[in-house]
């Protein structure tokens, strides 16, 4: 892209190019649904971005606080997309802490073993005093 096109990039297009959403439609839906904030405000999806803008993106239970480092309307490789933004250290630590918390919560409430085996049923019958 030439410099003229890079100067003005829509918010939904940038979120798609930075690989936060798989399609532009999903990015536009997230912006419209209030899951994206731009400099503390609730923007419209066509709002042009500038380098240095602060974006908050909520994806599931996680919240990313980003600073725009570069503008691109083209979706490239993940390594190139990671260069478009910089996540704040506070956001990264909060997100990692939440990931650990959710992982430990999942371990506690893991799936059951399923139906009792024949050996388990015999043990249950023995404990109930029927045998």
Task: Name the features.
131 residues; alpha+beta; Structural Genomics Hypothetical 15.5 Kd Protein In mrcA-pckA Intergenic Region, Chain A; 2 domains; four-stranded antiparallel sheet; two-stranded antiparallel ribbon; 6 helices; 6 strands
Q: Main beta sheet: strand number and arrangement?
A: 4 strands, antiparallel
CATH homology superfamily name of the largest domain: RNA-binding S4 domain
Classify the beta-strand content into a percent band: 15-25%
Q: Which value, in Å, is the CA radius of gyration?
A: 23 Å
CATH class of the largest domain: Alpha Beta
Distance between the termini: 80 Å
CATH topology of the largest domain: Structural Genomics Hypothetical 15.5 Kd Protein In mrcA-pckA Intergenic Region, Chain A
- Give the H and E element order: HEHHEEEEHEHH
What structural class do you assign from the helix and strand content?
alpha+beta
**Total DSSP helices:** 6
What integer is the average pLDDT? 88
Helix content class: 40-55%
Strand order, biggest sheet?
2-4-5-6
The total number of structural domains is 2
């Amino acid at each position: 892209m030439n410099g003229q096109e890079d100067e003005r990039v829509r918010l939904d297009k940038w979120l798609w190019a930075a690989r936060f959403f798989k399609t532009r439609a999903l990015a536009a839906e997230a912006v419209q649904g209030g899951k994206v904030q731009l400099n503390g405000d609730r923007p419209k999806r066509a709002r042009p971005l500038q380098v240095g803008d602060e974006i908050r993106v909520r994806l599931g239970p996680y919240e990313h606080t980003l600073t725009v480092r570069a503008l691109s309307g083209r979706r490239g490789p993940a390594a190139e997309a990671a260069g478009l933004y910089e996540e704040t250290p506070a956001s990264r630590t909060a997100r990692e802490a939440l990931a650990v918390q959710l992982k430990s919560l999942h371990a506690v409430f893991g799936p059951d073993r399923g139906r009792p085996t024949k050996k388990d049923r015999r043990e249950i019958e023995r404990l109930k005093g029927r045998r």
